[in-house]
Design brief:
- The chain is of the alpha/beta class and 261 residues long.
- The protein has one domain (8-126, 178-258): 3-Layer(aba) Sandwich (Rossmann fold), CATH 3.40.50.
- It is 37% helix and 15% strand.
- It contains ten helices and seven strands.
- Strands 1-3-2-4-5-6-7 form a seven-stranded mixed β-sheet, sandwiched between helices.
- Helix 4 (139-153) packs across helix 5.
- The mean pLDDT is 96.
Length: 261
């Protein structure tokens, strides 16, 4: 049996190196609608975080800070050269990408965050999500729960929850071995943004705003933490997973940003 890597990844295209960090209950397939366009200009590293997808599992007892330390060492092993990197992170992956960029300093030239997590815990109302454990081994029920939770947490329009989308979510749920909330609610983002030495762009779906996740409040946190003028773009016709729901707009904003000097 082949031993799993701490960070499993697939590469596409050629050019400057661009690393994609996925969201919680996710894997590299969160970027399925973006990789082809990005690979026309970049060497894209679509990664599975430790404990996700095809990557090696991690201890369920690992804290958020321990997970970030482990991730950093694994990322250094994966990309050991000193050549510049560009990072894009979505949600949970946004918190990770910002933390890695803060640690790696001048090696990171561009950081793009899509609805990043990593802020302080807030007393928002609980979301009406359903537990995936409810499904057990019932694939039909799991797809039903995934559809429900995607429309609560990730997407704005029912028609976006295609069979391809459900296939991705079912796979991700089945291959998640770490509680992303340890990082997503770890209050690391503000400190990391204050340490950045690279260009920053933030994308936020217009539909990613609710009583469970107040967009203006979360964006204001980012604006307060970052020392420069915030390069913020609200993505139309998209919720939290805007890279999937409106890939044309997101791909254009990503390529425009990553090709800028």
């Amino acid at each position: 049996m082949t031993k799993k890597k701490p960070i499993a990844f697939a590469t596409y295209g050629s050019g400057p190196k661009l690393v994609l960090f996925h969201g919680g209950f996710g894997c590299r397939h969160h970027w399925v609608k973006n990789i082809k366009a990005l690979a026309e200009q970049f060497t894209v590293y679509a990664i599975d975080h430790p404990g996700y997808g095809e990557s090696r599992g991690v201890s369920s007892e690992m804290s958020g800070s321990e997970y970030l330390d482990y991730f950093y060492l694994a990322l250094q092993e994966m990309l050991p050269a000193d050549e510049p990197l560009k990072f894009a992170g979505f949600s949970f992956g946004g918190a990770i990408a910002a933390n890695m960029a803060a640690r790696m300093g001048s090696r990171i030239s561009h950081l793009l965050l899509i609805s990043p997590a990593g802020g302080p815990k807030r007393d928002y109302p609980s979301r009406p999500t359903r537990s995936y454990k409810e499904a057990g081994d019932d694939e039909v029920l799991l797809r039903e729960i995934c559809r429900h939770n995607l429309l609560v947490n990730m997407l704005s329009f029912p028609e976006t929850v295609t069979e391809e989308c459900l296939d991705i979510q079912v796979y991700c749920v089945r291959h998640t071995k770490f509680n992303s909330r340890k990082v997503s609610g770890g209050d690391t983002l503000a400190k990391d943004l204050g340490m950045l030495r690279c260009k920053l762009r933030v994308l936020w779906g217009e539909g990613d705003d609710s009583e469970f996740r107040n967009a203006n409040q979360l964006i204001d946190d980012i604006r307060s933490a970052y020392s420069g003028a915030l390069d913020l773009h609200r993505v139309p016709d998209a919720g939290h997973w805007s890279a999937f729901e409106n890939p044309e707009a997101v791909n254009s904003l990503m390529i425009n940003f990553f090709t800028a000097e």
